[in-house]
Design a protein that fits this description.
The chain has a 3-stranded mixed β-sheet. The longest helix has about 35 residues, at about 340-375. The protein is mainly alpha-helical. Helix 1 (about 5-15) packs across helix 5, helix 4 (about 130-140) crosses helix 6 and helix 7 (about 200-230) packs parallel to helix 9. The chain is built from 13 helices and 3 strands; from the N terminus they run ααβββααααααααααα.
Length: about 375
């Protein structure tokens, strides 16, 4: 253990080793655990937020610099779940900072998946719920985060149990250590079962994913057609917008726009499982031909964050141009394309900015010339 880490362990010990458990400042404890995780993983900036989440969801991260923890966990009885969640999500930030997609580099789809996020659960109409769960549970990114969290929790609780002087918190540390050891055994069993029941037939997976992608795109084409055909009826300035027929159209339009958001999530999930050039072309042809729909345009950007998409220089440059056109600054762009190295993005972004500046200068010169001729 490094000296810097030992100091943080001692800070946590000082906070926990109180005469009564009720005296423990849970907020301070949480931030000490966060500091320990950051130090061990050598990650600098991590924002910790507490928000309302589903009851069975403990936390999430953006894989860059923000951890969100379910605020309902902010009770002493949930100290174990809180601790484990912070370690787990910090590991995802570590993964995001250390494992960057190389532009133009080919990635072969694998089972178990290299990277998996919660978009996978939007496929329960395509795969079974258990299959979606197995994809998620056995992915390298999730397995690594779980292993790190378990290892860190066990190390921390063993240290506390050994060094706490007061009876009640020492008893708590023992309970937490036992809970962690039990969890490790349960997770190992669950992982083995998930690996055993995982689908490894690559040809079968390829066919399912490509068929599902095609069906989703075909349905989206019909939805786009409907939007274009009913474009006038959806304008709020129309006098007949209150008629029942137009209300029904507007309701369907709202439903379609929401379905495009779900489409993006489903396509991201499918691409994380399997993608080839043919599938990529079908998705891009559809999205690029409908860039007037912001959600479909965003899909072109977000899919680059999946290594199996095999983003090329042209793909990423196109995404950068779109984001620049929408007025995003470079920090915002890096957030959207979070799985790329900032330096790689900067190399492609610089010519876009240079062309933009040159164009603005030419427009100004042209405007001055016209104004000068008018004065004459």
């Amino acid at each position: 253990m490094k000296i810097e880490e030992m100091y943080i362990y001692q800070d946590i010990l000082k906070e926990v080793d109180k005469v009564q458990i009720s005296e423990i400042d849970l907020q301070k404890y949480i931030y000490d655990v966060l500091a320990l995780s950051k130090k061990i993983l050598n990650i600098k900036n991590v924002n910790l937020k507490f928000e309302s989440m589903e009851e069975n969801k403990f936390g999430a991260s953006d894989n860059t610099d923000t951890i969100i923890v379910n605020k309902n966990l902010l009770k002493m009885k949930n100290i174990y779940e809180l601790t484990k969640t912070i370690f787990h999500e910090c590991r995802h930030i570590y993964q995001g900072n250390r494992t960057k997609i190389k532009i133009g580099e080919k990635t072969t789809p694998t089972i178990p998946l290299l990277f998996c996020d919660e978009t996978i659960f939007y496929l329960d109409s395509i795969f079974t719920q258990s299959q979606c769960y197995n994809f998620y549970l056995t992915s390298f990114s999730e397995k690594d985060a779980r292993d790190f969290a378990n290892e860190m929790c066990l190390s921390l609780y063993q240290y506390l149990e050994k060094n706490i002087k007061n009876h009640n918190p020492q008893k708590l540390a023992k309970i937490l250590r036992n809970a962690c050891q039990k969890d490790i055994k349960v997770e190992e069993k669950e992982y083995r079962e998930a690996m055993y029941s995982q689908e490894y037939n690559n040809a079968k997976i390829k066919n399912i994913v490509k068929r599902a992608t095609h069906n989703l795109i075909e349905k989206a084409r019909q939805d786009v057609k409907y939007l274009r055909e009913n474009q006038e009826a959806t304008k709020s300035t129309k006098e007949y917008a209150d008629f029942i027929e137009d209300e029904e159209i507007q309701m369907k339009v709202s439903h379609i726009n929401f379905s495009f958001l779900v489409l993006e999530l489903k396509l991201c999930a499918l691409v994380s499982i399997y993608c080839d050039d043919e599938m990529k072309k079908e998705i891009l042809d559809f999205c690029v031909s409908n860039l007037d729909n912001e959600t479909l345009a965003t899909t072109c950007i977000m899919l680059n964050n999946y290594s199996t998409w095999n983003p090329t220089k042209e793909d990423v440059t196109f995404a950068l141009k779109l984001l620049n056109k929408w007025g995003s600054n470079f920090d915002e762009i890096c957030k959207c394309l979070s799985r790329f190295d900032k330096n790689d993005l900067a190399v492609l972004y610089a010519p876009i900015i240079e062309r933009k500046i040159t164009k603005e200068k030419l427009n100004k010169q042209s405007s001055k010339k016209v104004d000068g001729e008018k004065i004459k």
